[in-house]
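User: Can you model how calcium ion sits in this protein?
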Amino acid sequence: MIGYQIYVRSFRDGNLDGVGDFEGLKGAIPYLKELGVDFVWLMPVFSSISFHGYDVVDFYSFKAEYGSKKDFKEMIEAFHNNGIKVVLDFPIHHTSFLHMWFQKALKGDSRYRDYYVWASEKTDLDERREWDNERIWHPLEDGRFYRGLFGPLSPDLNYDNPQVFEEMKKVAHHLLDMGVDGFRFDAAKHMRDTLEQNIRFWRYFLSDIEGIFLAEIWAEARVVDEHGRIFGYMLNFDTSHCIKEAVWKENFKVLIESIERALVEKDYLPVNFTSNHDMSRLASFEGGLSKEKVKLSLSILFTLPGVPLIFYGDELGMKGIYQKPNTEVVLDPFPWSENMCVEGQTFWKWPAFNGPFSGVSAEYQKKDHNSILSHTMRWARFRRENSWLDRANIEFLCKEEKLLVYRLSDKERSLKVFHNLSNEEVMFEGVRVQPYSTEVV
Ligand code: ACG
Ligand code: CA
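Assistant: Here's the modeled complex, given as structure tokens:
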């Protein structure tokens, strides 16, 4: 199984306004098929006033620029006709401050006040987010404070209130009825106060629905494991980071340790990725990886157990340095052609890193056998032919700083993978591995 993460606004335009949309996504299907993608994860598509869409104003309508319900359904149908599943980003931890529920709460409607989390006398109003020290409690003019883990514009929903839980289940059913194949659950570790409560929450939430449920639990491997069985698919931040760190440092130690922690003997599918919208892109890791190193990172991705997931454009080596507060800079338009003047091209902003004629376009790289895209397509093909690797066992055969060899196997099959992280050719057990390259026998 191969996944592909899409920021709709930047991917493909269907109505010539330069903004990506559902209609445009249909036009991207041939490209995604060529890459061998089995499912796409669409970043938030619901009504929202932000560029990222993680603060939803209405879960029952879509961003107007993306299209209508009809367009959405037609898009899903087109994907299904081509054997590709559609997974939606589902941010249920909070809403936008503009959501009708919050607006009614502000006007004193007691039913909706209980949809959100309000400070009491006991609340520590100076409480901070564990990872970056940002404030969690936000004041209103009347002196009340509400909780918003991700800032004042996105108040947290109150899951102590069973009505809120039912509201969000209703949304989930509605989307699945529309043909959606699953969800990427945003901020999934933050739903409840303790780990036990959080796990109980999700078990209950998922108890009567089926699909591809991919959780964003950005935490240490132990916490990810605890949630694994409930969801089935877990984003593997640990290994995804360590692939890049190892390649960057030219030392496999961190990757080996991560594989042992996060990829061995799991009762769920770890989803390994190249980068995502919350971090710098693969090609810009730690200021920038060389083309060889970007390619090696990708071939490692496709030869590990678990599900490989590509962040749109990483297969071209698109650049992007994550920075706050303007996090949209890593979300450049996907360059379909070198001049960026081709049908379907998005251009809702001037590209911050990947402008016209920067050599990263799909059209240009498809013609070049040595490009990052051609390399990705070859490894993706290998992966499709060996889809059993998703659940393969991994056993190390050589754990050197610059040479990593392991056996992947299941009951019937087995193959050996060799990764060379040095600038010289190496021989191991009669297999020749080129500098910064991967071999499989
Ligand atoms: C999701 C989305 C993100 C979105 C939101 C909110 C959540 O992908 O785009 O923001 O809807 C935390 C949360 C994640 C969240 C990210 C951005 N992502 O847990 O749910 O922030 C540590 C913490 C993590 C933290 C991470 C952030 O533990 O919890 O993620 O840092 O860098 C090792 C450690 C690991 C540590 C890392 C990194 O791996 O093991 O624990 O992670 O190092 O240090 C969007 C917008 C926002 C907006 C919001 C409403 O981007 O601007 O405010 O929507
Ligand atoms: Ca458009």
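A couple of observations from the model: Residues 97 and 337 are 39 Å apart (CA to CA). The mean pLDDT is 97.
User: Helpful, thanks.
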